[in-house]
Design brief:
Elements: H1 3-8, H2 16-41, H3 43-70, H4 75-89, E1 91-97, E2 102-106, H5 121-131, E3 135-141, E4 148-157, E5 162-172, H6 176-223, H7 237-287, H8 293-325, E6 333-336, H9 337-346, H10 349-355, E7 358-362, E8 367-371, H11 373-390, E9 396-404, E10 407-414, H12 421-424, H13 447-458, E11 462-467, E12 471-479, E13 482-483
Parallel strand pairs: 7-9
Antiparallel strand pairs: 1-2, 1-5, 3-4, 4-5, 6-8, 8-13, 9-10, 10-12, 11-12
Helix pairs in contact: 2-6, 3-4, 6-7, 7-8, 8-13, 9-11, 11-13
Bound molecules: adenosine-5'-diphosphate.
Length: 484
């Protein structure tokens, strides 16, 4: 199955555009259902409760004026007040004395239920007297126009000894015709809005999905192996972030890719040289030096050395893979660091004598440290080995033990070309090898990765100080330790 068919096999998932459009339309429909319910089904009860509240508020205003102004003898103000309320709110107002006789009235509706021919004042008066409540509200149909009316009545003074009564009559406008107008309007608005929603959602979906489509296309190219693909995340923040992350992933992939390719090239190159030598010298023994013990031994010696180099390389690869897989646990033991370092340096005696290298060791007072001796040996060995490989023409290498209050600092210095600032963070990576390495001893680009893994497993600090043209100092700190 190729990549694009793999990617497009998304089990009937909906495209983003359609999804956004559906959500939009559902949202609009929901909004309209709500509006229909409120506007059409509840309009009448809303209207009635609004009217009721307004009539009650009117009554409160008039009763207040009655208490404050009428009872203080300020009748003109009282009359002005209830007339104003009646006119401003389109209601009829009737004030009765305690016997039920009309003393003031204001009719702004024309024929209402408490005035004129339809006068039903006594009916409401009897009703409130009967129920013995301070106020009551009735919805009554108006026989004149078959519309509904609200009649509010309340006791002035107290229910036990009423001083009078206030009646307010308000018309309830018929809602039915309004509802049918609203219905028609809503229907048209719904259709227009669904249409607008469709257009907006298409645009919106396009804005959202275009960068994603672009990034997906680039990701497909990357998946096919093109590690120079550009990811264009213009449009909005999330798309830009996605594009940046993919660019980063691509950079890392390409780095690992190059490293692995380099490893195969390096390993095969480094394996080929000793193998060619092994074959050549074995043939020489067979064909030429077999009968000459001196020559034969010389050639056999070369074969043995080359075999050692080969197994060292294979060991490096195996060591690193074991260390990284976590199969190898650190096994700390106590040992004397100065003597251990002398031992390790001693192992380079052959190289020093044959090739003229000089390793200067500056020990500090002996300390007992506790760590995996074999692994730390390997660290020191690899670092000295590198120092020999990369030191300058003077062939000098300096090894120092520096005791510190909380540990022992080990430094290995060479006088080589040094390492560029931007390369320093790469050299501890697996398979990294600088292009300009000049080597006496075979390397796989794994030496420093092994150093890094071992020191990390111990939790020790490590690093490099390097000056271009002058050389480098590789260091690490063994934590703890005690004096002898
Ligand atoms: P190798 O030495 O086998 O290539 P290493 O992992 O030991 O692998 O080192 C990785 C790279 O670090 C080397 O290829 C080299 O470029 C750089 N390097 C290591 N030690 C030194 C040193 N002492 N001086 C300069 N460069 C060094």
């Amino acid at each position: 199955m190729n990549i694009s068919s793999k990617i497009s096999n998304v089990n009937g998932r909906m495209p983003l555009r359609l999804k956004i459009w559906i959500h939009f339309v559902v949202f609009i429909l929901l909004m309209f259902v709500l509006m229909w319910i409120f506007q059409i089904f509840f309009l009448e009860s809303f209207y009635e409760s609004m009217k009721t509240r307004s009539v009650t508020e009117n009554a409160v205003e008039i009763v207040e004026s009655y208490e404050n102004e009428y009872k203080d003898g300020n009748r003109t103000d009282f009359i002005n007040k209830y007339s104003e309320v009646a006119v401003n709110n389109d209601v009829c107002v009737e004030i009765l004395d305690k016997y039920g006789r009309s003393i003031y009235s204001k009719d702004v509706l024309g024929e209402c239920l408490v005035h004129g021919k339809e006068n039903r004042t006594y009916k409401f008066l009897n009703e409130i007297r009967r129920i013995e409540e301070p106020e009551a509200l009735y919805k009554v149909s108006n026989p004149k126009n078959s519309g509904d009316m609200l009649v509010y009545i309340c006791v002035l003074g107290s229910v036990r000894s009423p001083e009078g009564y206030l009646l307010i009559n308000s018309e309830l406008a018929p809602v039915g015709s309004t509802v049918s107008i609203i219905k028609r309007q809503m229907f048209i608005i719904t259709i227009i809005l669904i249409f607008i929603a469709a257009i907006i959602s298409v645009f919106l979906a396009d804005i959202i999905s275009r960068p994603i489509d672009r990034i997906t296309k680039s990701a497909e190219n990357m998946a096919k192996g093109d590690l120079n693909t550009q990811f264009d995340g213009r449009g909005y923040l999330e798309a830009q972030k996605l594009a940046d992350t993919l660019m980063y992933a691509e950079k890392e992939l390409s780095r690992v890719d190059t490293m692995q390719r380099d490893l195969i090239a390096n390993v095969s190159h480094d394996l080929r040289t000793p193998l060619t030598m092994l074959k050549a010298y074995a043939e020489m023994i067979r064909d030429l030096s077999g009968d000459n013990p001196v020559k034969r031994n010389e050639h056999l010696e070369i074969i043995i050395n080359e075999t050692d180099r080969l197994s060292a390389m294979v060991n490096d690869i195996l060591d690193l893979s074991k260390l990284e897989s976590g199969k190898q646990k650190m096994n700390p033991t106590e040992f004397e660091i100065s003597s251990k370092m002398k031992d390790i340096i001693g192992r380079f005696k052959g190289v020093s004598e044959k090739m003229g290298y000089h390793i200067h060791f500056t020990p500090d007072t002996e300390r007992i440290v506790c760590c995996d001796v074999g692994k730390i040996e390997q660290v020191i060995y690899n670092l000295i080995n590198n120092a020999i490989n990369y030191t300058g023409d003077d062939k000098q290498v300096y090894v120092r033990q520096i005791n510190q209050p909380d540990g022992v600092l080990i430094e290995i210095e060479d006088t080589g070309d040094g390492i560029e600032e931007d390369k320093i963070k790469l050299i501890f990576d697996k398979y990294y090898r600088s292009e300009n390495h000049k080597r006496e001893v075979v390397g796989t680009g794994l030496g420093l990765s092994i150093v890094k893994v071992i020191l990390k497993l111990h939790g020790y600090d490590y690093g490099v100080r390097s000056t271009l043209g002058k050389g480098s100092v590789f260091w690490f700190r063994i934590n703890g330790g005690k004096n002898l």
